[in-house]
Amino acid sequence: MSSEEKEPLFSEDLTRGLQFCLRCGECNLHCPVHRTLQFNEAYSPRGWVNLASMLALRDIPVFIDKIEHMYISVLCGRCDPPCPYDVRPSELILRTRKELIDLGYVPPLEVAALPRKIRTNLPLFEPAAQEGAWSPPEEGGSSILYLGRWVLNSPEAAVAASELAMRWLSVPSLADSRPSCGEVLRLAGYFDEAREELESLSEILRERGVERIVTACPEAASRLSEAGLTAKTLHESLSDANVVDEKMASKKFSRGVLLVPDCWHEGANEAMFQILSEANVPVVYSKICASCGYLVTYNARPDVIERLGREIASQAEGEGLTYVAFVHPAAYSAVKAALRGAKVRPKILDAFQLLLQVARKA
Fold it and tell me: Which of the chain's ends, N or C, has fewer CB atoms near its CB within 10 Å?
């Protein structure tokens, strides 16, 4: 190696992957953050990959603002399918976060605190639920409803999900939000901590003899299934249980609902769409999806989540819809926190609060 050559900052595999990107920009056309932030190139998949590449080749030093910038992506994954070379920008962004952490570079303060917050059952962000706001039913039986850590920030969503699960599925809630499925930690770049969280949760469930898991979080369903457990989303379970009929739709929903889909779980999206359609509630899909990545970005840059929330609300208002419903409860938690105090016309709910109002009486 000559004196002018520099050892790459990242692993050989990641460095090579970053160089495979030809910067064609196809991914940018599908990025909600890029569109919402006025098509600024810096806030785009191509921009994040380019930044990661410059860091890898040591063309620029690693400053805190560069680390923070890698957390503006919500990792919705919509940039991956359009890539003509199968580069998968979202995966490169995620792996860049991981390797920066592995190298000892501290991410934005609130993101750096995520492992501690999750493991000590502290709120992921403020404002959070006050002590005692979330009181789940007694746990027991071979089937349970697993909610997740977002219950601390959105107890109203947890209460709605629990009531739906008990009323139509006879499934009680797990009375502890620890440990988590680990997905938020993984998306922040803490791969080892994420794996340990999932293993701890899986061990607890197996020790309690849980045979069937219904989860309010679509990503948790995927992670638990990967761990070898039998898990299904609450959305799909309620759809199978036929919880509504065509006569039960409230008049207040007659103008329609903007449904914000989960970025990664089509099964949950389709189940919610079907349930609301069967209840004669007009449904329109949001142009922007939302998932666990919103929590990570909120902790780094809450202003970005506020902008995305306003964009979603603007679409609902523009189409004359009076309600916005999020399929992913954690994303709802982040948007609700980001928009607290803001004046937006559509009423923003999570899917379970909405379902509880349109489902037929037991």
Answer: N
